[in-house]
Amino acid sequence: MTHVLTVFIDGLKFESLKYMPFLNSFSQKRKIWTDLGYSVACHASMYSGVRPNKHLSWFIWKYSPDTSPFKWINKLKIDRLPHNAYSKYICYRISSLLAREEVTAFTGIPFLWNMPLKDWHYFDLAEKRYWTDPRYMENYPTIFDILTKNSIEYDLVGMPVDTRLSPRDIRNQNRALREHNPREIRPWTYLFIGYIDLMSHFYGQDSNEVQALLKEIDKIVEQKYRFFEEQAKDFVFFLFSDHGHIKINQELDLYSLFKSSGKQLEDYIFFIDANYVRFWFKNEREEKEIHQVISKLDGKGFILTSDLLRKYNVDMPDNRYGDLIFYLDAPYIFGRGEIVVMGKRRNPVIVSMHGYRPDFPCYDGVIVSNKPLLDEPYVKLVDIMPSILSSLDIPIPKHAEGKVIWK
Ligand SMILES: [Zn+2]
Hints:
Blueprint: E1 3-9, H1 21-24, E2 28-33, H2 39-48, H3 52-55, E3 61-63, H4 71-75, H5 85-98, E4 123-125, H6 143-149, E5 154-157, H7 170-178, E6 188-193, H8 195-203, H9 208-231, E7 235-240, E8 246-247, E9 250-252, H10 254-260, E10 269-273, E11 276-280, H11 284-294, E12 301-303, H12 306-311, E13 324-328, E14 332-334, E15 340-341, E16 344-345, E17 352-353, E18 365-369, E19 378-380, H13 384-391
Parallel strand pairs: 1-6, 1-7, 2-19, 5-6, 9-14
Antiparallel strand pairs: 2-18, 3-4, 7-18, 8-17, 10-11, 11-13, 12-13, 15-16
Bound molecules: zinc ion.
Zinc ion binds at residues 11, 197, 201, 354.
């Protein structure tokens, strides 16, 4: 039986292979064409083999007042009281506790500290379950569901990953990978390395800090690869990432943009993601006003028109992700302000971002394999699931939109 060893490194740029001598020594490497969006969209595509307009996981938050974990705050009219960082945090903690049974997602329930409390109750998580949970996706089975159904065993190493890792915790992450030396190799082994994305946000992927981590990971992957060479006669190996990383050099302040036009951003229903702002209109007047203000950002980004939504496979069946979605291009992000508690800034400064359009220059992920890859410049995220299934001799479901990456 063929064994499959896959390694995932969140946010590894194609260009960063130069810091990883072992991985760079493979002749078979390609760029990964990412999805428009963040990890929520990328992981759903990787594990389901269908694009965002089918699996419908695009952003962490969607408009859904009826199911929002913050519904109670509005019902009790708590959101009409004046609030500060402390009272917001208390509301957030209570909501998290109330929803703890229901939410097992990788991101958990993020703290919406930069959003007005009065608007929290409009929003719910688009994805409530963890990737490996059988209820992760409503419409499509994931690679994990399909393997379980086919009674194929797999080993997940390094999952789940705590997204609040501090640089100090990183050593323990590597330990989990190093200490994985099973007596018997399962058909599929999946090593998950989540912290390169996080560290790249804080330091930039070309920083000395991240370069050192990449060198360390390269050594660990080499050890795992050699272990597989000894243990398994024939095995398929590939390492992949979901997107690149881009240094940002300017934060734009939407609040002042609206103010300079004589409007208040807080008067509208909106959601700011790092480089997107999404609006839901209460009436035509609002629609007009928002268009007028947002058009001042022309040249720094653009409104995702229905043509663009289709082009990037993120056209949705309803307005859950916004009536108007403005995309901000690199090297910009929207400023989120600071959380200052007891005189200390609590949110780290971000120097590098992702979530940009897949056709932005030098923003590709990477894939490296020990088998000859198709002669095409890109591998897509939806190709990951069919490729693993085919290596394990499991039929690829008809609905899969990706293809096997090897010749
Ligand atoms: Zn990230």
